[in-house]
Protein 1
Amino acid sequence: MSKGIQALREQRTAHAKEARNILDTKTGKDWTAETAAEVDALYAKIDDLDGQIERFERALQLEDSLDQRGQQRAERSGRSVDEEAHNVATEKGIFDAWCRGGMDQLSDEQREHVQARRNEARRLYGAQSVGTGSQGGYLVPRDFAGTMLEKMAACGGMREVADILQTDGGNSIDFATVDETGQEGELVAESTAASGGDITFGTTAIDAYKYGSKVVTIPIELLQDGRVDIEAYVNRALAERIARITNRHFTVGDGTNKPRGAAVAAAQGKVGATGQTAAVTYDDFVDLEHSVDPAYRRNGSWMFHDQTLKVVKKLKDSQGRPLWRPGVTGGDPDDILNYRYTINQHMPQMAANAKSILFGDFKKYLIRDVMAVTLFRFADSKYMEKGQVGFLAWSRHDGDLIDASNESIKHYANSAT
C-alpha cells in the first residue's frame, strides 16, 4: 500500500510544481487564455489524485492508530502489550458473539465479563448510561469506541481541526476563558510598585449531550456468516450516523440543549457587498483574514462547503492568476492566501445572509467525547419477521468555542440582497 500511495504523491507533486511554476512566471501579458486552460487541466489532474491519496491515507491512519491505541491501553492497564492484546481479543470475541446471537450466545464466563464492565460503567457514568433488561446496555469494547471516533473524524470537517478532549465521565466541565489580546505589561521605574493587572476570567461549560444512531438493521444472513467482520460492519454504520449529526451541531448548532457550532459562535469578519448573495471576492478573503487578530492568524485556516471551494477555485487576482494554489509536496497543503482549508459539508452554502466561510484558529473550538459507547440489540418479532436484527448506539458529546476575546474565529456572510 505504501508504494502505491508514494507513486500517487509523486505524480501529484509533479503536477503541482508545474502549476506553481506557471503561476509564478506567467504574469501580465504572459497570462493568456491558453495558459489559464493549461493550469485548469493540471488542477483537474490534481483533484483526481487527491481523491485517490485520501483513500490510501485513511487506511494507513487506521492501521497506525490501532497500534498506538494498543500501546496506550497497555500503559494504562499496567499489562504488557501482548497481555493487553489478549484482553482486547477476548473482548472482541465476546462482542462478536453478542452481536450475532445476543446474551443467549454467551458462556457464563463471558456473561460475567459483560456484567463487570456494566458495573464499571454504572460507577463511572451513571446507571442511565448502561440500561437494563435482556436486550441492551452492552458497553462496547474500548477498542470499538476508539475506532468509532476515528471513523467519525473521517466523516466531518470539525474533528479535523478542533481540539479533542476525551473523558471517562460525563459531568459538566467549566473551562476558564480569558481575553489576553488587549493585555500588555508596563515600564516600571526603580523602587516603584507595579500596577495591578488582574485578569478577568470567564467560564464556558462543556456538557455531554446524548446522541443516538437510530436503529441500524442487519440481515440475519450476515450475522450467521462467520467470515463477515460484524464488528467493523456495525462500527462503520453507527459511526457515520453519529458523525453526521454531531458534525452538524459542531458547525451550526445553536447551543440550546445541543453544542454551539463554530459558525454560530464566530464573530462577524466581513459581509459581502450588495449583490454577493452567492459570491465572494478576492478582497473579501483578504478582509476576512485581517479581521482576525494576528495572534490567532498564526494557526489560522479556512473552512467552507465543497460548493464554496468550487467558487473559490475560479477566483483570480488582479493579474488573472487563481487564488487557490495546490501544495507542491505531500507535506504542503493546498492553500488560499497561504492558509490551508478544511471542507465541511455542514457549512452553509453561499446564499443570502449565509455565514458561508470561516477563518481563524480552530483549536480554540473544543469537542468533548465521553468514552463510553452503549449498544442495544433488538431481535424481537418486529425485526425477525423481516429476517433482520437491529442495533442502536448511544454516545455523548459536546462542543463550543473556548475564547473570551471572540477574536479567534470570524465569519464571512453573503449579502442579504
Protein 2
Amino acid sequence: MIGEYRIEGRRAAEIAASVERAVGSGELELGQLLPPMRELAAELEVNPNTVASAYRILRERGVIETAGRRGSRVRSKPATTGREYARMDVPEGARDVVSGNPDPALLPSLARAFAAAAEQADRSPVLYGDALVEPELARLARADLDADGVPDGPLAVASGSLDAIERVLAAHLKPGDTVAVEDPGWGSLLDLVPALGLRTAPVGVDDEGPRPGEVRRALAASARALIVTDRAQNPTGAAVTPTRARALRAALGDHPDTLLIEDDHGHGIVDLPLHPLAGVTRHWAFVRSVAKAYGPDLRLAVLTGDQVTVDRVSGRHRLGPGWVSRITQRAVVRLWSDGAHDPRAVAEAYRERRDLLIGALADRGIEAHGRSGMNVWIPVPDETAAVSRLLHAGWAVSPGARFRMAAPPGIRVTISTLTPDETATLADAIAKALGPASARTYA
C-alpha cells in the first residue's frame, strides 16, 4: 500500500488507528504522502466517506495534515512521535543542566502548608457543589494581578499552565484552526497544539519577546490565536519589554477577534516587571503557574480572562475533574502568605547564575541569551555535534530540536543549580564544543 506498510480496517476508527500505529512505530515516515481517499477506499473495499472520516480523525489528532489537491501526508512532527524523543537522558556521571527544573534549595517547604490546609479541611470539608476556587486564593491572586496591570476578569484554577492553555484553546478553536506560537518555544506546547488538531504558525523570538512583524504576518494569514510567554520564556529567557508590548498590542488591535493567551509561569522567580498584552482582543486568557516558584508537583495555575472564556473553561472543567483540590489551593494560600518564599531573593539567585554563565561565554566569544528565568539559550552551528561533545565532556544539555520549528539550531542550558565554581568549566566545555563557528544568532 505505502511502501512496505498496508493500511487496514473496515471502519473509520480502525483505519485511523492503523495509520496512527504505523506513524508511531516508524513504518510510515514523517512527511509520507498517504493514498488518495478514493484509492484507499477501493483498496479496502469501503465507502470513500469512511476513509474521509478516518482522515478527519487523524487530522484532529494532529497525525496528518491535508493540503487540498496536494493530498494528505503524515505531519513532519505529529503528536504520536512528539518532542519527547528529543529529550536528553542524563547518563550516570554527567552533570545535569538539561532538565528545566527549579533549584530544590530555592523551593519552600510544603509540610506546614499542607498540614494547615488539611486541618482546615477537617474543620470545614469541601463537598460537591462548593465553590471551585478557594476565596482567599482568589483574593490574593487578584491583588497580584491588579498590581501587575492585568485587566479585571473572573478567576479559575487549573492543573498547571499547560492544562489551562489546553482548556482555553479547546474553548474557542476547532480542529484545523491555526495558532501562532513562539519559535523557539516551549516544547510541550509545540506538541500540544497539533495534538488538539490545530496548526502551528511559528513566530520568531528575540530577547524582548515575539517579533511584531512576524506576529502581524501570522495574524494576517488567519491565525486565530496567539500564545505569548511574558517572562522567563522557555528556552530563550526572553521577557516582553514596554516597547515590545506596545508593538504587540498594536498588532493585536488590528485583529481584535484573535484569542490571546499569555503565560506568566515565571511569576515569583523573575525580577523584571510584567508588561501584559491583555485587554486589546475580545477573548483573552492570562495564566500564572506556581510550579517554578513553589514546586512542579503542586500542579496549580491561576487563570483569568474575559467572562466568556473563563465561563467556558470552568463549565467544561466541572464536567471532567470538577475542580482542582481545595486542599492544594489552601496550601498555596499558606505558601503565598507565610513569607517562607522570597521572590526577590529567588529571582536574584537565578539572575546571578544566568549572568555568570552568559558573561563567561561572552569572554570566550560565544553569544548566549537569557534575560530572565532559569535557562540560557546558545545558538550553535550543529546541535547534534554540540550535545555529543558536551556529553563527552560530562555535561548533559538540551538539544534545541525540542524547542524549534523554523528557528536556527541552538542548545538550552538550565542554570538553576549551576554553582559559580562550575560556570567557568562549563563555559570552557561549550567553547571547545562549538569552536570558532559559534558566533551565530537565533535571530
Protein 3
Amino acid sequence: MKILWITSVYPSKEQPGNGVFHETQVQALKKRGLEITVICPTPQNPAVLRALKKTYKRKTLPFYEVREGVKVYRPIYRALPGQLRWAQPDKRIAKAILKTIQVKSLQFDMIHAHFAMPSGGAAHIISKELQKPWLLTLHGSDVHIYPAFSRSANKAFQRSVHSADEVISIGRHLALAAKEKTGRDSFVLPIGINLSRFQAAALPKENVRKELKLPSDKQLITFIGRLVKEKGVYELAESLNRLPKNMAVVLVGDGPAMDDLKKHEQYGKRLFLPGQISNDKVKDYLQASDIFALPSYSEGMPTVVIEAISMKVPVICTAVGGVPDLFGEFNHLLIKPKSVDSIVERVLDYHSEKYDLPIIKDQLLQYVQDNFHVGRNAEVLEKRYRKLAWNEGKASLSIKGD
C-alpha cells in the first residue's frame, strides 16, 4: 500500500529536529510494509521581501533526499508573511505538490495530510484533482489557534475538516474542541513515540553533565524546544530570580529569543543556552536534568514531554492543548500559562517533595507506554488506511454498478 504524506514539518540534515514525530511514525509504518512518500513544501518569500528582512530568507533545503529509506520531496512555493492569517496558501502549495507528483511520476493509493492548515487545504485540492481519498490529522494549533486568525482562516479550517474522508485528532481534548468548532467527530490516535530510545540510562548523571558541559553543582531545570516567547522561555528565565541559588535553567534550542536571553543577568551563571541540538542528543539533556519544564502558551501534544516522562524526569507543563490528556489524574500538577508564580511554585513543590514523585512518575510512564508507543500507533494507523481504501473501493464499485 502506497501513502503520500503531506506535512509542513519533516526532519532534514539541516534541520534534524523539525517534525521528528512525523519521521518516527513514518519509519514505524515502513516497518509494517507500507510505502510512504513524503512531500514537505518549502515556503519562499518574494525576492524583494527576502532582501528587506533576514527572517524572510529561505533556509536552503534539498528538493529531494532519501532519509532512512523514505523519499522526501521539498518543492518550493511562493509564500507571504503572515499568510495563515489572511492569504491562505492552499492553492500555491497544491500547485507545487501536483507538479512534483507529475514530474516524478509518483504513485500512491491515498493522501495523509498533517495540520488542517495549510497542508489540509492543499490535500483537499489534490484529492479532488487526482480522485484519491485523503485522511487529515489535527495536531492542536490548527484547531486552537489558526482558525481564530481571521474569517478566511476559519473558512479554510472548516473546509479542510469537512472535506477529508477521515479525520484523526492526536488527543481527546483536541477531538472535543474540533467537534465543537466544526460539528465533525474525529478518531483519537495519539502521536507515536519510539519509547525504546527514551529509557533512563545507566550512565551517572554527573558523567552526562560533564559531557554536555553543564554544571554538576546545580539542580537543573531544562527546556527543549524553539526559543520563542510563546514557549514561555522568558518566564522560565525570570523564575531564576525567585528560585534558590543552587538551581539553574538550561534552555536547549534556537530561535528569535536567543539574543534577548543572552542579555539576562544570569546568563552563563545560572542560565545556560546550549543552542540547537540533534534529536539523538535530546535523551542526554533529559538524563542530565532534575526537572523538565515546558511552560508554553499553547501546544498540541508535545513529544518532548512524553520523552521526559519516558525517562522518569519530573515534568512542569502548562495546562494547554493535549497536555491534560497526558497527565490524566495528575492534572493538578499542570500550571498556568504566562505565570512566573506558577513555575516557581511547582519547582519548589517538587524540590520539597510535596508530592510522591516516584509514584507519579511510574503511573505517567505506564500511561505513556500504553498509549504512545509508535509500534502500536502504526498498527492502528495502518488499519485506518486499509479501512479507508476499502470503503473507497466499495464506493467506486457502487458507482460503476449504478
